[in-house]
Please model this.
Amino acid sequence: MFNSFFTSIISDGAFTGGTLAIATIVSLLCGLIIAKSYMIKNRCSQSFAITLVLLPAVVELVIILVNGNIGAGVAVAGAFSLVRFRSAAGRGQEITSIFLAMAVGLASGMGFVGVALMFTLLICIVSNILNIIRFGRDNESARILHITVPENLDYEGRFEDLFEKYLRSYEYESVKTTNMGSLYKLTLNVALKDGISSKEFIDSLRTRNGNLDISLQREIEAADAL
Model:
């Protein structure tokens, strides 16, 4: 019984209306699971969500139609490769979801509907677990600190005692002039100590830089890629 779960419902490359309906229904169900799983922890447009739902069924139909026809299979592979070069590169999880949808459609098109369904559930569960435990995410205490100081202020050694008091680590990233050279803007990568109030930290810095602009912000995430 268990082994039959991994056997193909299409025998000798021939399919019937019943097998086509089963493969299509399973493909759409898998696509819906993939889309819902992606939407749990990621921002998703309606267009992308619908694409994830329909893509496995489209791939499944193509695979069924070219089953056993090598020439048609090569032509379809070439058509799919054009999608990569006519599309903007997406985030890593977007690309992974698309590849998962295509793999599920491929499995369904070959008749392995049990494998397609099981693999979809497995990958979606693992993906959500990794998102929940924040796997691979940077330190939550990491911040970017911008301090504006007047040009006549010797900033070297001016703030280090406050950094030692409030920060776990700090590193000067850049120093540049602004406002026609009358001000300096210091940029640092910092990590706050546990339980530290950012307001208290900024208020302490304001007493040293003449009450000029200070900003403490999270680093903007760059577009990730595979």
In short: The two ends are 39 Å apart (CA to CA). The first strand starts at residue 142 and ends at 150. The domain at 142-217 is CATH 3.30.70.260 (Alpha-Beta Plaits).
